[in-house]
Specification:
305 residues; alpha+beta; Fusion Protein Consisting Of Minor Coat Protein, Glycine Rich Linker, Tola, And A His Tag, Chain: A, Domain 2; Protein Transport Mog1p, Chain A; 2 domains; seven-stranded antiparallel sheet; six-stranded mixed sheet; 6 helices; elongated
Length: 305
């Protein structure tokens, strides 16, 4: 009886409630400046995520060129400046085409059509495991990918890095240092000197300087560098360091560290991973797989139209 009364009450309230008033439409823009603002607002609203970028986390930026008819309908959309990451360009085109129509062109925009360029920026935060295996930052040309069962999460703002992720695996067993804790940190730091070349970075003197910096950083963290290696890697020089805590180092006595770094003219990539003490040899193949997932976005061979 109580349930029936509650249901009747809810139906009565639903019927008695007035329908929500439709929001007032904004006035039509009267000049070029007002139209530009209105056009940006049209694209600023929340939209469904295009399929091409589902499973991607990071920051994607593509500039599109939109041709608009006088009535505001969209006549054509194309890529003005590619992100370098094909799925981002595809998503930008779809979002622009799905916008429907823009405000009618005001009198001070002449012609039957008007062309406008618009940067479309998507900042994608991971929401489930499918979004936690590929991180892309198109402005940096950065791509980091990790295979199952490993997951990645963007790092919060860090003054030492331009961008980065931490890699975890739920319930990761030994040889990793601790279950459910980050296995690796993968970071990228923008270069301060735009005149850098890969040839210069690969010179012995440059490699020696980079190795000395990493060695000093280890010593500052009470870590001993047990061995190092320098090898050719994707056209650059890969520096690897194997580190163990010095006696009395707080909190790290049961761990060993693997550090790898390589430099491109655009910046430096650094990977730091932790293994349980005495088990680095078992963990190293996994750490190298994670290392190999970090690099530059391959240039799009032909941007979609």
């Amino acid at each position: 009886m109580f349930a029936r009364s509650l249901l009747a009450l809810s139906l009565t309230l639903a019927v008695a409630s007035p329908a929500p008033a439709e929001p007032e439409k904004p006035p039509l823009p009267q000049n070029r400046q007002e139209w530009a603002v209105a056009a940006r607002l049209t694209f600023a609203g929340a939209r469904p995520l295009p399929d091409s970028v589902k499973g991607v986390a990071g920051s994607l930026r593509t500039v599109v060129r939109i041709e608009i008819r006088r009535d505001g309908s969209i006549a054509d959309v194309r890529i003005e400046k590619s992100s370098g990451f094909g799925p981002a360009d595809e998503a930008a085109l779809k979002m622009a085409r799905d916008a429907g129509s823009l405000p009618p062109l005001p009198a001070d925009i002449p012609g039957e059509t008007h062309a406008a360029t618009l940067p479309l920026i998507m900042t994608l935060a991971p929401t489930d495991e499918a979004d936690r295996r590929l991180y892309v930052h198109t402005d940096l040309g950065l791509r980091i990918e990790t295979p199952p069962p490993f997951l990645l999460d963007p790092l919060p703002n860090n003054p030492r890095l331009t961008a980065g992720v931490q890699v975890t695996a739920a319930g990761a067993p030994p040889p990793y240092a601790a279950p459910n804790e980050p296995l690796c940190l993968v970071g990228f730091k923008n270069a301060d000197d735009p005149s850098r070349t890969q040839e210069g970075l690969n010179e012995d003197a440059s490699v020696d300087r980079a190795l000395a910096v990493q060695t000093r950083a280890a010593e500052a963290n009470s870590l001993a560098v047990d061995r190092t290696s320098v090898t050719d890697y994707r056209g650059s020089k890969l520096i690897e360091l194997f580190q163990t805590p010095r006696a009395g180092a707080p909190g790290w006595s049961d761990s060993e560290f693997y550090v790898a770094m390589f430099e491109r003219p655009s910046g430096a990539y650094a990977i730091t991973c932790v293994a349980a003490k005495g088990r680095m040899a078992e963990a190293l193949p996994t750490f190298q797989t994670i290392r190999d997932g970090a690099g530059m976005i391959e240039a799009a061979s032909a941007p979609p139209r």
